[in-house]
Every structure is written in C-alpha cells, then in structure tokens.
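Tutorial sheet, problem 5. The three components below are modelled jointly, 1469 residues in total.
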Amino acid sequence: MNAPVTKPIHVGLKPTPFIERLRPLNKFESLEYWKGYWSPADYGNAEREYFAIRNTSSVFDLSPMTKYRITGPDTVAFLQRMVTRDVSKIKVGRVGYTVWCNDEGKVIDDGTLFRLGENHFRLCCQENQLFWLSHSAEGFDVNIYDETDEVTGLSLQGPTSCSVLKALGCEGIETLKPFEMRAFPFAGGEVVVSRTGFTGDLGYELWIDPSLALPLWDGLQEAGKPFSGVEPIGSHALDMVRIEAGFIAAQVDFVPADQAIRADRARSPFELNLGWLVAMDKGHFTGRRALLEEQKNGSKYCLVAVDIDGKYPADGSIIYHHKETEVGHITSGIWSPTAKRNIGLASLLVPFGKTMLDDLWVEIYVMRELKWEKLMVKCTVVKAPFFEPARRRATPPLTY
Amino acid sequence: MAERADKTRDVIVIGAGHNGLVNAAYLARAGLDVLVLEKNDHIGGAAVSSVMYEGWTYSNCSYVCSLLRPEIMRDLELPRHGLQVIPYEGGATMMRNGDHFATYYDHDVFREEMRRHSRKDAEAYDHYSTAVMKQCRWIKPLLLRTPPDPTSFRPRDLQELLYLGKHFASLGERDMGELIRFFTLSIADFLDEYFESDVVKAHFAGSGIIGTALGPYSPGTAYVLLHHYMGDIDGSVGAWGFARGGMGSVSSAIAASLLSYKGEIRVNSEVAQVLVENGKATGVVLANGDIIRARKVVSNLDVKRTFTKITDPKDLPGDFLERVTKFKIRGSSGKLNISLDGMPTFNNVPAGHSSLRGDLHFTDSMERMERAYDDWKAGDWSRDPYVDMLLPTQIDPTMAPPGKHYMSVFVQYAPPTLSGGRDWDGPARQQFADTVINQIAACSPNFKDLINHYEVRTPWDIENEVGLTEGNIFQGELTMDQLIFNRPVPGYAQYKAPIANMYMCGSSTHPGGGVMGAPGANAAREILRDLRIHGMDPRQEIEL
Amino acid sequence: MTKSYDHIVIGAGHNGLTAAAYLAKAGGRVLVLEARDAIGGASATAEIAPGYKVSTCAHLLNQLHPRVAKDLGLASHGLKFAGTDLPTTVLGASGAVLRAQGDNVEGAISPADRAKYAAFRKKLLKFSKRLQPMLLTTPPRLLNRDFKQNMDLLKLGWAIRSLGRTDMREFLRVAGMNVYDLVRDDFESDLVQVLFANDAVLGTSMGPRSPGTVLTLLYRLTGEIAGRQGALALPQGGMGAVADALAAAATKAGAEIRTAAPVARILIENDRAVGVVLSSGEEIRAGHILSNADPRTTFVKLVGARHLDAGFQRDVTKIRTKGMAAKLNLALDSLPAFTGLNQSDLAGRVILSESIEQIENAFNPAKYGEYSPTPLIELTIPSVADPSLTGPGKHVLSAIVQYAPYHLKAGWDAAREDFLKTIMARLENFAPGIGKQVVASQLLTPLDLEREYGLPGGHWHHGELAIDQLLMLRPVAAASRYEGPIAGLYLCGAGAHPGGGVMGAAGHNAARTVLEARKSGEKAA
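Model answer (structure tokens):
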C-alpha cells in the first residue's frame, strides 16, 4: 500500500473573504452558526448596530448565503415547475422573492431569484438546496452549480446607503428601483448592486468576485465617512429589523418541509401569509394540486403580525384564546426600538388570526431580579410591517 | 449445597444476561422475591467484561452501548449503581486506495468530508438523516410495549392493534409508505436512493448487516439499520458510546440495582429443566439435581434453548414446538479481542485523528460487503470480512494500563458451522483470526508487532460459552417474519410461554437484540400484570 | 378529419386490450394505440425462423383471471388450450428427475418429503386463495379512505382473518419469509426445493434466500387457469392467442386497434389529460387516457416532468425494476433428448437446476452485474402439444433464463454472444446434442425485453413484486388507484396493482375505475 496518507479535511469555521477586516472588529468573538462559516452575531452592541440600519448605513457579510447558478435552455421551465411564482414575469436585470414547495404544498424554503440573463438565474437561499434542486431538475435541460464560494455578497442597508454607493462611484445608483440590479465598474472589475435586502429599509446587496471583497470593504468604509460611517452588523441586529419588516425566517417562523420530522409541522405558503407568491394561473408547479385543494378546503394555520401589550419580548410564548385554549405561539418577538411597540409574528390555528381576532392572550415568562413571573398579556393582530419608511420604495430614494 | 432447602420463590429468572437481570430487577423493585440462576461463574451473558490478559479488560462479546433504553436506566437507577456511558464521536472507513472516509461529530465538518467524496452525497446526507430519524421516532414508542396478537379478539389486543393503527396513521400518507419500505428494502437499495459514493454507502451500510445473516443486498436489511439507529445517548439519536469499564459494567449495574431491591443471583447454577406440574411451571431442576420452586419461571435463554433444551417437549403444544424449531437463529459474526502494547498507526488516517476514537472499518464498497456474505452462504468465514473495530481505551482509561490499548474487532461474517466438515474448535479458529489480523495489518504497519494477546470468538465459542444458539447476537434474525407479533413465535409474542406461569424475557422476544433491556422490561410488565401488581403500565408516548 | 373517442388506450399489451374490451363493452368509443407492428406486448407469438412460431416472451398461462376470461368470452373469441394442468419436471444433477402435477409428485424425492408434499402445497394454495379477492379490488388508500375503501380494506383483512387463528398466524409468519427457509424447513429433497424456488424467484431480482420470495410464490399461486388454482396451461397457438382473443373481444365490442402507432406524448390541458400526440405528429383526443405502458414511461416520458410534482416524479423514478430474466427461443429440427425425460415430460414444463443452493449460487454473479454461468432455466417445448406452431417433426423450445441482470457490467451488446454460448452449454448438459439441432435462435436479454417490449429494466412485472411495491404502494402511493395526479389519465398495465403475469386484472380494474369516473362525470353533467 504505497498510496500517500490522505490529509483529513480542515476542522474549524470556514473563513469568508471579509474575515481579515471583520475578525479584529469582533472583539468579543460573538458568532452565530451559519452553515459552518465565520459569521458574526454582533460586534458587542446589537442595539447600536440596529440603529445603524435604521439611521445611517450598515454592512452585513452575506458570503455564507447559498447561491446557485442555474443555466441552460430549460431554465425558465425548470424554475416555473419548481417555485410558486411566475418566473416569466421576473425580467432580466430584476430580482424576485419566492418560495418553493413539496408535493404536499408545504414550503421547503424561501429565497431570491436574480435574473442575470434570459436563461441565467441565481438563486440565493439560506439553506443547502441542491438535493431538491437536482431532483427537480430531472427531465429538464438545466445546469445547476453551487457558486456560494465564488460570489461574495455584502448587504449595505440604511438611509444613507444610496449616498454611500454614489460616493463609492456607482454613478446613477439613485435611479435603481427596488428589486432591480445593475453592474458598476469597480477596482478594475465590477460590482453588481441589487436593491434588495432583509431589513424593510432602503438598502442594497452587493455581489462581487471574492478577490475584490477587501477593496470593496475598504472603499465602503472610506465612502461612508462623510455620512456618519458604515457600521458592521451581526445577525442579532438583522433579526430585529426583519421582524419589524414582517419578514419570516426559515427554522424560526417555519420549519423547512423537507426537514420536518413531525407530520404537522410543515406549512404552506398560504399558512405563512405568502399567498401572494403563489401564481396558480402560470401552469403546473410542484405542490400546485395540493395548494388548490387547500384553497378549496381552507388552511389549517395562519401566520400573522401581532402587537403585544407591555415591553417584554414574547418570543416562543404560547397564545391562548380567552386565556384558556391554546391556539398558537409567537414564532419571533422583539421590542421594536423604532416602532416603540412589543411586536411579533405568530403562528395560529385557523380561525384564530383570520376571523377570530379578539380575546387573544400571550403567556410570557419574565425574570425580575432572579424571580420568574408569569404574565398573561393581551395580543392584537395587526398588519405588518411595523415600520415602513418612504425611502424603502422611493426612486430616487429620499436623501437620508 | 443440596441440603439447603430453598423456599418457594415468587419468581425464578433463568440466565443472568442483561435482559434476565433487567427483568429480575423490575420484579424485585415491585416487591417480589426474585432469584436469578446463571450457569456460568459470572453474570452478564453477552454483556461482560473480563480480564484474559493481565492488566487488560475485554468487552468479550457486545462492545458498544446505545440501545439500552433510557427509561430502564432511569427506573433501575443504573447510573447510581455505577453505569457510565461515554459517547464516542466519529469513525472511519479505510479505503483500498489509501484514502479514508471519516465521520465527524460536527455537522459542517462531516459535510465537508462528504463533499470530498461526492458533492451530491453531502447534500443528500441531511435528507437521509431526516428519513431515518422519522422512522426511529416512530418505532421508539413501540419498544416498551407488548405486541398484540392480530388473530385475537381480546379487548386488550384489539386496543393495542388500534393503537398501532393510529400510530401508523400519525406518520402521514407519504411516510406511512416510507415505513413499509424500511421493513422491506435492502440497505443497498435504500442507500442508493440518497448516495452515489461507494465508500459513503459502505460506511452507512454496516449498521444494516451487523449481527444478521443477510447481505446488504438482501431485502429487509434497511430495518436492521434502523434497529441500530433507534438508540440514543443523552437524546442524541443514533449515537453510540462506551460503557466505562467495558460492557460488563452494564450487567453489574443492573445486578447491583437488583440486589438493592433484595433480589438474589446465583452463579454456577445451571438449570437442567423447567419443572412443570399439572401443566403449570412450578420451578426448576438444577443440573446438580436441586429443585427450586417458584410461582413464576422466566427464561432469559433464547427461544430455541428454552424450549428444546430445558423444557420437556411433552409439556408443549405440537405446533408451538414446530415453530420454535423453525425460528431462525443464525450465527453470522465472530470477534477478536486484542491486547495491544501501544496505539497502532494506520496508513490511511494520521495518528491522533478524531476518527480513530470511533468505529473503524476496511470495507469500502457495497460489493465487497455483499461478497463477504456470499462466503458465509457457502459455509465459510468471509475472506474479506466486514469488521467493526474500536479502541475504547482511547476514551476509557480503565480498561488497559496507561499507554496500552484494548482493541475490539467485531467480524461479519462467520458461519455457525463450517463447510467441508471443518470444526471451529480446530485449526479453523486460528485461520479465521489470521484472516482478520491480516486485514487490519494491511492498513496498519505496526499492528502485528503491538499484539500481546488476543482472544478469538467464533460463533461456536459464543454458543458454547454464552449460550446463544449458533452464536447469534440477537437471539434470532431480525427479519420481517420474526418481528413484532411474530417474535419469537406467532401467537406467543406477549412474553408468555405456552405453559402457565412460564415467561420469556430474552432477545428472542420483541423488540429483539442489542443491549437494550426492552424484552426484559416488557416481560416484567406482563408478569406484574398477571399478578395484578400495578406500577408498570405501558409508557405514554409523550415526548419528553 | 380525426374521429373522436371516449377512451384511448396506449399500448396493446394484454392489460391494454382487456381494458379496451371492457370499456368498449360498456359502450365507450375506444381506440387502442400500439407502437409495435403486432399486438399483445409480452403475450405474443412470432415466427423466429420460417415455419417456427413460438411464444417469444411469456410462455405459459397460469394467471389469466377467470373473471376476465368469462366476462370477455375469450373462449368464444378463439382461445383454446393445447394443454391444461401441465406437468412440471425438474431435471437435476446426473439425470435425477422429479415429476409434479397438481398435488402428485414422484421421482427424486424422499418418502418423507413425498408424504408432506400435498399438504404443504395445499397450505400455500389456501393462503393464496385468500389473496385472490385482492386481485380485483382497487387498493384502498393508506389514509383518508372513504366508506367504500374502508369496506374494501375490511374485506381484504377479513379474508386473512377468517383463515382461523392457526392458519392466520402461519400466514403472517411465512408471508415475510424467504423461500429457501420455507421449503428447507419441510423438505430435504433437492428437486422439490427447486420446484418451489423456481416459482418464487423466476422473473424477480431475488435469490431463494432473499426475504420476500415466499410472497412472490404466493402471488403466483393466486393464479387459476382452466378452473384449477396453481396450474399451468399452454394456449393453442402460443401466448399470442391470448392477445388475439382479447383483441377479438375488444374489436367485436367496437374498439379500434391501431398498430405501428407509437404515442410520443400525452396531451395535457389545464392539468387534465385530453389526448395523445403520436410520433407522426397526429393528435387524437379523448375523455380518458389509459396507459398500458409502465408507470415511469407513462409519467416521465409521455406526460413529462413539467406536469408532475417533483416528489412524485422521484417516487416514480425510484420504482425498482431490475430485471434478471432473459428469454431464449430455439427453432429445432427435431425433438431434443433430455436425459431421463420422456415425451410427456416435454409436453409440460421443465426446470433445470440441481438444487436450491445452485439457484442461490446462480443468483450471486447477477448481484454484481454479471450473468450466471449456470443459470436457472425454465423451459417448454410447446410444439410437442401444439404442432400447429412448427408443423410435424420440428420443434420450438422456449426458455426463461434466470439471473442475467439488466445492468451488465460488460454491456449486453458485447456479451450477448457469450451469454448464448453459456446457455447452450448449460442446455447441452441436460440434453446432449441439442446444439446440433438448432436451426435458429433468438435471445432476448433484459435490455432487449425493454427495447422490444417496453418492459422497464426488462422486468416482467413493470416493477418488482415486493411488499413496498404492492397494493396501496403500487406503483407509488399517489397513483395506486389507477388514477395518478393528472386527471383523466389512468394506469392499466402491470405496473399498477395487482401487477404482472398474463392476468388482465390491472386492465379490468383500470377500466372499472374509468367507468366509475365516466358515470360520476355524466351525473355531474
């Protein structure tokens, strides 16, 4: 046996192209698990980071985000069969948010589709999806390639983000409409900027070759100086703003259907308040027949935004009707520093949340000076988002 | 000894294997006067630790722990009686091309390792785990329940059948189908649905064949995999660990628990015959002629031994005996226990690598594994065997002197009887050992030099010492015709023998083998029920 | 101008023809479209050399459902038998011969085995009898059953339950076993073990030791032919005669059959099957489309991925269809001399194998993508009882050669010649000189069976007969009641419950499902 000793694989967190800049800033080494990558939870003060998103500009390292390049003559047909949205309506140069379902019409995951060409899409999502993508691709002439480590992403979000990008040299960025993307020359290469994000505020996502990641970082820091700076943020701050925006997160507000072990845990798009993403008239897609049935027979669950009395975050709390019957639970809950309300997203058993809106109560456990106390507080179904500044949708965006 | 007149006991348990001990401990805990009789000079059956070479403790037979039901550990307070189970992480299959496939505790590291072999497989792994987990979750509540008799109209059987039906339906339509597939698919077909890399498949397939006389291509082996996955350590499903001090410490902890409940164990007390009077079991006759009487007699022996060796055939209904003889208990495994002067090095994995602290294998393709089975079918041990090899002394400091190691090598396949009239108790035993040692040495240059001593256990040895028919580690094949209400014999899956006051509590009964303790606990529940003693009702399947 | 039809049946295999005949009899306008020039699918007779006709694929009739034969009046449409209740002869090592017919057995069998034989066979037949009602029942769903389905399920359960306690227990035990253990538990004589093992493994991808082979044996014994359960018959004129009678019944009732009309795809509009498009481009519409093609071909090829849910497509792709049986047809200038066999033996069925271990050993190479050097062979020489096939003096031999895997490592096109030599050498062992009698030969490997007869993977049953591919799971849970996810499209072939064998049950059940749909459709209209 002359074969060489095989070197075992690297054990430890995977670095991202920004790690050289980010690690020194992360003084408490506070990290969040994301697919084994080095990904910050916060830089010591999530609240401050939160206000950077809502007040100036923030940057978040999107490198671990799973990215699939989908090409080939059947690309559109393949996507039409896989996702619930009508992909033909996403024009080249635009981005669309969508979900995809299993046969039973339950959501497997959500993600954004970037249409880079007639037959060239990029699918960005939180989880690894190649298993489902490749099974869905059987019978279609498409090529699916995981380009996660070949495309670096950086999210620049906040009221000053447009101005910062202008200062970076992105000429005409102010004409970029929500869900549009455009390439700009940068450092001898290019940076693709899409007006997308997970914050419900004005913001952009920047896509670039990993070799230009550090120059981009440095460039943004420099460009941001006149605009009160560009603050690196972690997942904690991001989580706060996405709840304010009413956005759902996989593994938090729903269990991806292909990972659900218990039969009743998966949820349909309707049950996640994402019915607007389902294009029943576009022809067949996976789960369509089940969703038609659900439309006919009614959904079992619903997901709603709620306003909870008091100030204690209700994350994970059980919701009761008439303080007696369990009817659901809070999937995400925070005190919103901007809305100045105690807010949350809640999964409820229909008809609660649909027609039965009154007399809902949340059981919250709070610790006051080492003593746990149980509160039964009122909970009101409201309309998300909890905060929606005009700059989010305006083109050109209002100056700060 | 004979002069000591024994009083009539509440219960006599024949055999101090782990199930016999669990059974006895539960009964003693309920206040019964229990006597356990063991033919050997030590307890534990196949869960034993023994010193065969000065300074080294071997787990002679069973060698790792996962299936022992947590409910039993808690009920019998086994940790208080000295049981410590230490999980091990990782493992590796060493490949013929010099490479290896390692498993890692860390999900992402494991994923990267799979990607090294196949990107597709890395993606498929989570889906595979979810599928297995779903089925394990379904099966677990059934382990500590008594199977119903589907031919009966008794309310209890109907109620239990109804429960099974409801439990089945709770899976949802798609997974109901998946469950049926698990009982009938071969592990090869099942793995093919997820993985493409041969070494990845071979690594996972091992659990589908260990202890069974089936090859990985045989229908039904997917279930055997489940059987090995349904254990957990501290809630980590499918995890395996070492019992600190060797597997004997499982037995001694149960024994200590039994003694704490005022039960009694007698070693060197072989039972020759179950005493039956007026169609009722009334006690046992020992090999030395002593008679001990009891209200209930429980046998921990496998069903063949129980009814063909220590029961008079005239006490049994004819068709029952016929089915007992048709019950398939097939020896398919052997074992080497090796005392090593130091840690062996391996060509395929660098010294100190985490995977060496787990289960190690050399079979890197499904075809090699299946061919190993073909040898067994032909009445020979595998020329290229599948081994499950561990060095527990890397984690457990109690089993060998400092710096020295104990190696446990489980070998699949070895037939109970060899073709061509060869006898295991002859040169064949050494030839079998050489086959295994050479396979290890091919990947480990210093292995042979490190060997101080080794013990070879063929199916013949296991049968002769432990008393497992044919040396089968599960006391009966885990095939569909011998599971749930068919185990051990259709119509007698409720732990009761066809003789009044006689019970079975060995792995021949539901839910089968592995150091699980469930058959012993279930039999105890049935006995207490018959005695109208409360305190051991079927578990509620609330997830805690 | 194309005519319009109520029902289109894709494929004129025996199940397709059965469905067509039932639908036409019920007054529907039916069109059967067959890709090949001949009808019958695997139930076919063809000339392999001038003056030599033989059943090219299936060669014995043992399962044709009596209800189908009666309802469609097959006898009045020309189905005659050259032999019923055929004897089986097992030819083992050095001229050992076992002769079996019905419950009688003689020859190379120990007295103890002989004494047990009839009772053992009766027991199996009794168990199989209990499975018979299942054949014509549309499988109830696993969940969300309606009243009718619950009743069906109860009936199926009751059929087993009413065996009585002892027999039911025995049934539940043996149903999951392997045939090797089953017969060795009771018999010591090699050839009687071979007799049962052959019937259990033929056409499957399993060896005698594979769990599940008792089930395939019981399945086979559900068959009843000419009023006898578990018997074998030889149709006059070969298996093509069965197809001809079915076709006659169908056309008599008004169905139209077009051969050489391959369907390229099924037309789907608004999520409903509304017609077919032929390879020629011709488009034909109908209210219901029945597919006699296997489920994978039907859904993946003819319907296409874009009309299917991805999970369903994956399930259909996963159906296990590994064929391991080849077919050899020989034209012979005279009757071959099998050592120890007489003319009346050769009028029946002959099995060539020395022992059940030999069968298991023959299975071994097939697991690794190699054909067996000593395959298990079941043969008939139909021309002995039916001279119409060849004329006097000449003969045809039809042999099923078990353990030739579809996925051959060497590739079938390269290995076909060698495999033929291997089989001939094996035959020569039992019938010295047979090689010199061969006028022409036709070898159909599993790959050929797929190419020529559309049997996926060369598997006779369009999918392995195993518990996970039976009843409510055949072919997959979401299409187990003949109707899949696409409204208006039905499966009527062997891939659907209750599977293959020239039985006609799948065709019968599918037609019944379509007629029910038609009725409720009319009611709604």
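Marking note: Chain B has a mean pLDDT of 94. Full credit if you identified this.
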